[in-house]
Specification:
Elements lengths: L40 H14 L4 H8 L5 H7 L3 H5 L2 H11 L5 H13 L9 H14 L7 H11 L2 H10 L9 H28 L2
């Protein structure tokens, strides 16, 4: 019995949807589940599927698990979707994408890819593809909120050290940073030069008796 004058308060589940899990629905991996992001449903579902696959959670169970990743105000809505009622995970994903069309999310995903691409220093292997990818992502995100100088310097500082040193000395034109496309062109030309002399050096070593 409650003490006199004290009001009984019904406890509510934790507000963090990543930790509010039903029994036997992946509770041991609670901290790994993504939070539902209605502005980027595609990325949310990709991450959700990756984790579910890694822990052997089959598709029908994913329908049940999904609601414990949702904010409380979305649960009643999502549990009425055709895919949820039928236990059809592929249909439920379509339902979610229809209900939350991607708008700014496309740009958000591209910015995330750009950050991942430049997170670590590159090697010479696949360099051309990475430079072209960087240019493409910067264009697709309307400059990624960076000035031309920042775009160029970010690219240069992600290069292999041998190239970074060369580009730091030769990139500026009349003391001014040229447009990113021109910087990328210079990088690819210098990379081809570095690779050529590396091959020549290798061949010369092979020819020595």
């Amino acid at each position: 019995m409650a003490a006199a004058g004290k009001k009984l308060v019904k406890s509510s589940p934790p507000t963090n949807p990543t930790t509010y899990l039903a029994p036997n629905v992946g509770g041991s991996i609670a901290s790994q589940w993504p939070e539902f992001d209605e502005e980027d449903v595609v990325s949310f579902l990709e991450e959700f599927d990756e984790i579910a696959e890694a822990h052997g959670i089959h598709e029908k169970r994913r329908c049940v698990k999904l609601k414990y990743c949702l904010p409380k105000d979305k649960v009643s809505e999502v549990t009425l979707y055709e895919g949820y009622l039928r236990g059809d995970w592929e249909q439920l994903k379509k339902d979610l994408l229809y209900a939350y069309p991607q708008m700014a999310s496309s740009s958000k995903r591209l910015l995330k890819k750009l950050a991942e691409l430049t997170k670590e220093r590159w090697t010479m292997h696949g360099l051309r593809s990475k430079v072209l990818m960087y240019q493409s992502l910067v264009r697709a995100t309307d400059g990624a909120n960076m000035s031309n100088n920042v775009q160029a310097n970010t690219l240069i500082h992600t290069l292999p050290k041998v190239l970074e040193r060369k580009m730091m000395d030769s990139t500026l034109e009349g003391g001014v940073m040229p447009p990113l496309a021109r910087v990328a062109e210079k990088i690819l030309a210098e990379a081809a030069n570095v690779e050529y002399w590396a091959e020549v050096s290798h061949d010369e070593r092979d020819e020595k008796p």
